[in-house]
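Case study B.
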Amino acid sequence: MKFLLKTVTIFLMLFTIVSCSSDDVEKDEQKPTITVNYEGGFPQACETLKRGESYHFKALVTDNMALAAYSLDLHHNFDHHTHDDQGADCELDALKEAVNPLIYMENFSIPDGQTSYEIDILITIPDDVDTGDYHCAYSVTDQTGWQSRTSVDIKIVE
Amino acid sequence: MIMKLNFKFLAVLFLGIIVSSCSSDDDNNLSNGAPEISNFEYGMGGSDHGSDQYAYIGSDIHMEAEIYAEATVSSIAVSIHAHDLEVGEGEEEWDFEQTYTDEKYLVINPTFHEHIDIPTTAPAGEYHVVLTVTDQAGNSTEVEGHLDILDPITISDVSIDSSVARGSDLHAEFMINAVNGVHNILVDIHAHGLTLAEGEVEWDFEQTYEEGYHELTEVEFHEHIDVPATAPAGEYHMSITIEDENGNTTTFESHIDVTE
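Model:
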């Protein structure tokens, strides 16, 4: 009887520990960060880019645990929609219809669960794209699935 | 006997511990519920970009929402449809269904942002908008609302003579609201199968009006059209077509009795 009691007790204790082990895993409540506001960050708000030139698009991303992926999205703002978050008011050209706007949308993964990373994407602005106002939108995702975004108003000129 | 009591006591005690020690897990499961959708806005695209819940035929609907899905978003679906809208000539029922699974949305906290084109053939009227977010655990949340799809050109306060004596003038007046600006107005007046008496000449009127209307978004059409004294009397058919700067057109018709 005593033996049985001990066995049951140990079994129950084990069960208690096992059943709650998932509690011990730290839950990631933090979003990654993303910024172009450092020396080398590109583009800065209201930056002017020339057709035919190549540019390194650079942003710094960090996460408390592990970064997973980032994306860069360049699209025209000929209709003056807004999602710049740089707080700068860039002078916009007149409203216009898009003919052959630059559209760039790529996803990249960040290897090895790094906690900080500098995005560096080389893009050549084609000679034949519409000039005018554009948005440059970065996003970053951590391994938990949190996302952060930043968007910069830029202009493409001749 | 004592042993047996102890055993029971211990068993109950441990059961209690098990239950209480895991209660926090249960809380987590509770909060790990369906996705949350906030700041859902849709309506006019372009510079307005506001949450006005209307949009024009031939333009686009801007749609935006903040999403929080602890279990990570797996898809976002948009449905726009109308119930029993009258489908006019040259129009086609518009029933929009699309599921977005772009990588940028498959995260815990995406911002949904899309521009949805309204075909030029969509009938104007009230539509029903549904946004459904599904997470990777299979939970889904839905928000819905109403959207007014408006004709970019509307006509009101129409006053056109229904009867006119030949040799005098026909008075035509109406209000035009064209959000994209008026391009021009084409007036066509003709009759079918009227017999010409001696001295009469078939009257087929066609004129494009632009001056005084071009590029205006709100303007009163007001013209006097001379009916020649030689026009045969009878019933005439009048058709007025307004074209806006984006190429949308609207046509309305009227009948005129030309008297002797």
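The mean pLDDT of chain A is 86. The remaining cases will be described in the next quarterly update.
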